[in-house]
Amino acid sequence: MDMNVALGIAGAVTCLALSAVGSAFGTGFAAAGAIGAWKKCYAQNRPAPFQLMTYVGAPITQTLYGMLLMFTMISTAQDPNLLPGGGAAMLILGAFAGLAIGMSALFQGRAAACAADSHGETGQGLTNNLSALGIVETVAIFVMIFTLLAVGSLVPEVA
Predict the structure, then answer these.
(1) What is the DSSP letter of 123?
(2) Cα→Cα distances 24→19, 53, 63, 138, 159, Å
(3) What's this model's pTM, rounded to 2 decimal places?
(4) Which of 9, 99, 101, 109 matches a 20 to 30 Å C-alpha distance to 93?
(5) How far, in Å, CA of 12 to CA of 69, rounded?
(6) Is the pLDDT of residue 157 over 90?
(7) Based on the structure, what is the number of domains in the chain?
């Protein structure tokens, strides 16, 4: 396998892995917040709102963004028209994009834990809480889109 291709694939997998690590941390934080909120509800003999699962699952989408980038990067790495050094560029792009997407997931999970606590205690705020989580998610979407554009520029258009 050509070194350019190997580096590109390594960058793709790095992007997915770092995105998934962030999702793991984020869902873990959000799950802890939801479980704590449910405990408070049980202690007060109130129904535990199932809507809290929405907060727990919010950070998992960043793994999907990493996966979409991975598939595009692998395809680009295997393109015979890939620029020289394109594989190294994808390794760097994958590492920084994965880190940024993963951080978005981590902090979304921390915010989701607070949202679960608030919602569990008051029974209100689902729409506002999800709006706030959506803003944090937007960072990951922007990173994915801009990285896709950067990766696409590594293969020149053939006339």
Answers:
(1) S
(2) 9, 15, 9, 18, 44
(3) 0.94
(4) 109
(5) 7
(6) no
(7) 1
